[in-house]
Amino acid sequence: MLYCVCVSASAAPAEAHDDRGKVFRLAAPAARIVSIAPHLTEIAFAAGAGSRLIAVSEYSDYPPEAKRLPRVGDGARVDIERILTLKPDLVLAWKSGNQAGDIAKLERLGIAVWVSEVSRLADIPRLLRDVAILAGASAAGERAASGFERELHGLRERYGSKAGAQEPLRVFYEIWHQPLLTVNGAHMISDAITLCGGKNVFADVPVLTPAVSFESVLAARPHMVLGGGSANGETEFRARWESMPLAALRTIPARYIAPDSIQRQSPRVIDGIRAICTHLAYADKMRKHQERAPR
Predict the structure, then answer these.
(1) Which residue, 8, 129, 230, 254, shows the most beta carbons closer than 10 Å to its own?
(2) What angle do CA 142, 144, 146 make, to 5 degrees?
(3) Nearest to residue 36, comparing CAs of 74, 84, 90, 87?
């Protein structure tokens, strides 16, 4: 299915694929863009398309300029009437975070909707490049994407598993506490754990963000717990795990990762990855020290 959005007859055409396999061919770069997911707002700004955003979703709070833009709903409900009034050339949507019905309705009404889905860290520079192309900001998008790739490469070189190394640290990652939710191997956070030389203990579960029991966490034998859930920082997160109903869980080191730094699929995820790598490197150092200690 092809879309053609005419913005300016004199501007060069723009083309990009979305994550449904659809091809977008714009007669000219989009001048009026609406983002209906917070991380896509961040992607647009990072890709040099921030000046073309005319509205964003709720919780779009980064960068600070995003806070000043009009709101058009959230993942649960998009204000379609308001979007139509704004007459956008392009809407940026999140496949698993926006309602499929909202996306379909916008398309039926003639709005071009570019739908993305990040599952691997390598998807972020791809999104930066594609959004930049659609907005006529290819040079800025390339700079942002290349910078992100350099950061990833540096972290992988420093912290990634080395041939012949001992068993990777087993990690339980908490994305919410009640119910207790984690991620499987298809999630970007699991990709980050692997990059840092760790192993996600629930990587093989078929559900992307499964609910798990305390007993199953204990049975998975994690060396470390990482995450944030709804905790208000490191102190609260640690205290929660130190008061777990199962005594054996209380002895597992728990370290806080600010949710917005790792759960939003934007260039800011570098900060979250760096935090994960730092915690795992320290835990690995402590494990080696304990193994060398006389018994």
Answers:
(1) 254
(2) 65
(3) 74
Round to whole Å and give the CA distance between 168 and 282.
13
State residue 99's pLDDT score. 94
Whether cis (ω within 30° of 0) applies to the bond prior to 206 is no
Instruction: Tell me the pTM.
Output: 0.89
| Domain tally, the chain | 2
CA distance 56 to 34: 6
Distances (CA, A) of 196 to 139, 148, 154, 157: 30, 16, 11, 9
The residues, any chain, with a CB within 8 Å of residue 226's CB and separated by 6 or more, are: 171, 172, 173, 174, 193, 254, 255, 256, 257, 276, 279
Residue 36 lies in a domain: yes
Which among 146, 122, 112 has a CA at the least distance from the CA of 18? 112
Let me know whether 123 and 233 are in one domain: no
Query: Which SS3 state, helix, strand or coil, does residue 21 take?
Result: coil
Distance of CA 234 to the CA centre of its chain: 21
Per-residue model confidence (pLDDT) at position 293: 63
The last residue of a domain, from among 147, 174, 196: 147
259 closest CA partner among 173, 198, 197: 173
When pLDDT is cut at 50, 70 and 90, the band that residue 16 belongs to is confident
Q: Is the pLDDT of residue 285 over 90?
A: no
